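Changelog note: in this version the structure field was regenerated for every chain. One regenerated record is shown below for reference.
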Amino acid sequence: MRLISQPCSTVGALAHKSPLHGCITFEIRNTLGLVRGCCAYWYASTRFMILALTQITSLGISVRLALDRIGRFARFAGRTLYLIATEPSAWMRWRQIGPLLYSVGASSVIVVSITGAFIGMILALEGYDQFAALGQEAQMGGVIAAAVVKQIGPVLAAVMLAGRVGGALAAELGTMNVTEQLDAMRAMSADPIKTLVVPRVVACVVMTPILTIYSDLLGILGSFGIICGMYGVTRADYWYSITQLLSGWDPVNGVVKSVAFGLAIGLISCYRGFRCEGGAAGVGRAATQSFVASFLTIIVVNLVLAQFLQTLQRWMDPDTMRTLAS
């Protein structure tokens, strides 16, 4: 038995160590490695595709939600403007529009006055050294007046109104929304936009230009006090520079911008109030979002109108531009 079993084990060992067996083992290992690599590549590719599709889906949802919000606001604004144009009875009653004009305008006079006067004084204080170095301190009045009337006055007055009036409008209408007062008005066949939004938007549109003009005048007077009172520039030189550098188009530009700013503040604030939800916390968020959205809109609209009105002025009155350039 030993003699028979020993050759058998020797043959098995020789067969195990044969070149054919080694080749088969090598091929199996290569095949397994290739399969493992393909599986890893397929897993990585699938994971990358899933992540990419997830990001694309998130982007699509964000775009759809943004377009939905823009569409809702456009519908709200269009409805409001349509009622203003076609149903003046909704806002021409003094009992309804009078308190709103007082709330938007008269109650904001102090804030706008302080802002306008101090801006004029600050511009005079900061700019005198540069003008004096060039020997042009007598021209400061015209430069500051043009800057205040065309840009700084309308923008700052609108920002003050957006913070004070816009937040109040959003909070007021937001409180009515979360307490279901707007739903009660709709149940009684009353249009909340016609009753609540239209008079408030009209009040903002009417009072913002008036407050802007008031702020411009105080800014000019504030710079007058600093330039003539502190730095000794004569009154005649100050007012003469204003007549030379401030054209008749500049106040018109400021008023047009202020009308657009007032319209934006009224529409955005009322819309945020109508879309408010979530109780007291939601009312606070609506007021904050109203100011932020109004501020950004004011900046963008100011840029667009500045370019448009400047182009319009060059087309309609090129002599004024040539006079200023000379």
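Spot check on this record: The chain has one domain: 87-325. The radius of gyration is 36 Å.
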